[in-house]
Design goal:
Immunoglobulin-like; mainly beta; disordered N terminus; eight-stranded mixed beta sheet; 10% helix
Amino acid sequence: MRKRLIIVVVSIFLMLCFPKMFLILEANPIPVPTLIMEREYITVILDMYDEAQLNVTVIGLYPFINKGYENITMFFPVPPEALRGNITVLLGKRKLYWNVTSQKYSTILGDYPVIAWSLAKPPDKFNITVVYWYLVPLSKGGFRTLYAMATGRFLEEGYSKQCIAEVTFVTRNLPEDWKIRASFVPPPSEVFMVGFESQVEALAGAFNGTVLKKASKPFHGMENDLLIEVEASGPEKWIPYTPTREEFSKWSVVKFGNGTVEIELRFAFRNSGYSVKLVGSQVQENQLILDLKVLRWTGPSLQVITYRTVKARFHSIKGVFKILVRVNGKNFYTIPLNQEEETKTFSHIWAMLMENIWLLFFFVGVIVGVLLAYIFTLFKKSG
């Protein structure tokens, strides 16, 4: 059987809406071989990594119908920062190998690198999933990033009456009064006047869960990229913040013999612009509940790792309990309280000290040695 190879250009949103159909046979409305993709589903997650960086995660699901191709190579433009993050390409659940090509994709934010992967003997129907993340630095009071969608001008072969892309936005840890603006913009060679075809703008609090739908022209690929801008608005202030599990770095639980339980929670933040306060504690059934108020400063702060610690004591505690940590009124983390795991009694602490007693002797030996040397020096001088 004669093998054919199709070079399929795929954007971040894999806008595979083919610009023309090949009339191989006049009686056949769908040319063979060809690929068809009529829908695609993209999730864009905008997460405030810190006040100087925005974490962008893209999850794309692209269903294809294969009409006769045995070998396919797909090209996929990505932001330059994505190459320093993490990129995963899946055929169904199977991970595919990808490589960076020498090709460049031109955008109004500069050239994008292009990755590629190949499929041998793909099935009649298959899904491609692409997942990647990257960090966008703060610039002029906001963040700008772009998703390459105007790849219709590069498509060589294929068929689709029309392709519809659904882009869902998820916002995390963004101040609710910040603005998010999504614009469909032409490639740099075609920018004119206002510089966009259509645009939607809303506050970050309202943008979470927003779905944008974009349809191509009949028998055409997408002709515009998607530009996303996040802008700070309003004066600098403290805003509620939900820590990540990585920032919740450590806890300790000490049980005293009289039924008193002391809990210490420790957070590690990337900068000094965070505040953690214990605003309440209570015993409810078999739970010890700690209510925390965690805030983040929207203005500048010291770029040093900063630790925040809170302590709480409960009295007359009997039996096995769980510790529930709530942040800004929402459940955040549950710590099991039992003898085998997190619970620490005085006997446990003493055993831990005894296990590391050599370290104590070492430092005592060093100090004694230094003192003896100093005394010996004084003795020689006086003699």
